[in-house]
Design a protein that fits this description.
The structure holds two protein chains of two kinds.
Chain A (H helix, E strand, L loop, with lengths): L1 H11 L6 E10 L2 E11 L4 E5 L6 H8 L7 E6 L2 E2 L2 E2 L6 E2 L2 H8 L2 E4 L11 H11 L5 H14 L15 H14 L4 E5 L7 H16 L3 E5 L3 H7 L2 E6 L2 E6 L1 H6 L4 H12 L1
Parallel strand pairs in A: 3-10, 3-11, 8-9, 9-10
Antiparallel strand pairs in A: 1-2, 1-4, 4-5, 6-7, 11-12
Helix pairs in contact in A: 4-5, 4-6, 5-6, 6-7
Chain B lengths: L2 H12 L2 H26 L4 H16 L2 H11 L4 H4 L4 H4 L2 H26 L3 H9 L4 H31 L11 H12 L2 H30 L7
The chains are: A alpha/beta, B mainly alpha.
Chain lengths: 269, 228
């Protein structure tokens, strides 16, 4: 039910997808990791990107904010074509300022949290809004405290990352992304580095964000989460989109044989 | 124990302390600036610059400091064009020769410390900064350099201590810093043991003060390693 209302939001803005790729390729040396991905995510969509390890799902996500440079293809963010120029093996960034500007709108949450170890949690949250977005310190501090409260870390605002548990670090990293007021959130296996008992607290925060109608692209191995929270599943295999559809369709079975095999491996595992 | 003599020696040696501190402070500062340039050159995309920087590091790390001091103080004077150049007023002074040798020497080691510290910055933290829209100078100033400083400070502290002790070699080229004065006192009193014990104690005090200051700085910068 939740997903259908989100799709309704998506329909109204379908003219300009939040992010779209056309024939996106990526290879490392002779190894072709992405073999032409055509994809778009509309505002308000929660897309779960699934696939076995080596399927290219993380690489694909990292291409969307240019942490990986694609070898060929086109990328549009909020309707704006990302300017890339030919390079040796991969495309190159043609307009650094454009990338830096778009990146503040496409925030990323990493598998290993990647909080800045030399700053307190609060400083981690304030760093990019103050220095990159050049917003006022007082306003950013208020916003940061609001977001910290929301992820349940307000009382840990002055702690350093090394003093936090994995689950707390990842919630802080999500908070760091949120303070930038991004239009899209990218999650790269956000719970894969966590102890099993800490996964729930992070997924809960992500569920809340999804329920707000935020645009989220999530690479994950949490099948139950993907099924319950996402509005669309993107299933990658060997660098191609093998299946795509609503979780109800795909998890119902019988749509795509490889997806069914993939899921059954998980339920056995 | 001849306390009055020791006290007298101590007072006389202290008169060399300003020169020792000057040699250490100047060569460490000049050496650090040089090291930053060398470390930047080692990481440069322009190969000749990289080769020059590598050669600099290998040369000054691979030869004894004493040989470097001799080469600069005695050796350069044999090069006629240099004797006639504007540099000569400096290069004929043992003071500047000592500083030059010490600075070049420490710059080679420090360049390697800087390179290692920057390489040790976790790739994920740099990536997170890029993903927030940071690049270029801001990325370095806000993320890479502060983390590298925390990684490199303990090692650089050792280098600074080595340099304080290395200033004693300047006595060989006639400078009357602490060790130079010690030599003079010995040649007039022949009381080697007492004089060098006091000399050693002065260096020990200096290096102890420096290492205390460094561990204080480390503790302040490493706040994230302390349990809450």
């Amino acid at each position: 039910m939740a997903s259908s209302s989100r799709l309704a939001i998506a329909d109204t803005t379908e003219a300009i997808p939040a992010i779209s790729t056309a024939d996106l390729h990526k290879h490392y040396g002779g190894l072709e990791v992405l073999k032409g991905i055509d994809f778009h995510a509309n505002d308000g969509e929660v897309v779960a990107i699934l696939g076995a390890s080596g399927s290219g799902k993380s690489t694909f996500l990292r291409c969307l904010n240019l942490l990986e440079l694609p070898s060929a293809g086109r990328l549009h963010i909020f309707g704006e074509e990302v300017k890339l120029r030919p390079g040796d093996a991969n495309l190159r960034i043609a307009d650094r300022k454009q990338i830096d500007r778009l990146r503040t709108q496409v925030a990323m949450v990493f598998q290993n949290f990647c909080l800045w170890s030399h700053m307190s949690v609060l400083d981690n949250l304030m760093e990019a809004p103050v220095h990159v977005q050049r917003r006022g310190r007082a306003e950013v501090r208020d916003e940061a405290e609001t977001v910290l409260k929301r992820v349940g870390l307000l009382e840990r605002a002055n702690a350093y990352p090394a003093q936090l548990s994995g689950g707390q670090q990842q919630r802080a990293a999500i908070a760091r992304a949120l303070v930038m007021k991004p239009r899209v959130l990218l999650f790269d296996e956000p719970t894969s580095a966590l102890d099993p008992e800490l996964v729930g607290e992070v997924l809960k925060v992500m569920r809340d964000l999804a329920a707000e109608g935020r645009t989220m692209l999530i690479v994950t191995h949490e099948m139950a989460f993907a099924r319950d929270v996402s509005s669309r599943i993107l299933f990658l295999e060997k660098g191609r989109i093998e299946a795509e559809g609503s979780p109800q369709q795909l998890f119902g079975g019988g749509v795509n044989e490889r997806f069914d095999q993939f899921i059954s491996r998980f339920s056995q595992g | 124990m001849d306390w009055p003599f020791l006290l007298d020696v101590f007072h006389q040696l202290l008169s060399g302390l300003p020169l020792t501190l000057q040699l250490a402070a100047l060569s460490l500062s000049v050496g650090f600036v040089l090291a930053v340039l060398v470390a930047a050159a080692v990481g440069s995309p322009f190969p000749p610059l990289r080769w020059v920087a590598r050669a600099h590091v290998e040369l000054f790390r691979g030869t004894p400091l004493l040989v470097q001091i001799f080469l600069i103080y005695y050796g350069l004077g044999q090069i006629t064009p240099l004797r006639q150049s504007f540099l000569w007023p400096f290069l004929r002074e043992p003071y500047w020769c000592a500083i030059l040798a010490l600075a070049l020497n420490t710059s080679a080691y420090t360049a390697e410390i800087i390179r290692g510290a920057v390489q040790a910055v976790p790739a994920g933290e740099v990536e997170a900064a890029r993903a927030c829209g940071m690049s270029g100078f801001m990325l370095r100033r806000r993320i890479i350099w502060p983390i590298a400083l925390r990684q490199g400070l303990p090692v650089y502290g050792s280098e600074a201590i080595l340099m304080i002790k290395a200033t004693s070699l300047a006595s060989i080229i006639t400078l009357t810093e602490v060790t130079g004065i010690a030599y003079k006192l010995i040649s007039s009193t022949y009381r080697v043991l007492e004089i060098f014990v006091v000399t050693g104690a002065i260096y020990l005090t200096l290096t102890f003060l420096l290492s205390s200051a460094l561990s204080l700085a480390e503790r302040r910068l490493h706040a994230h390693h302390k349990p809450s």
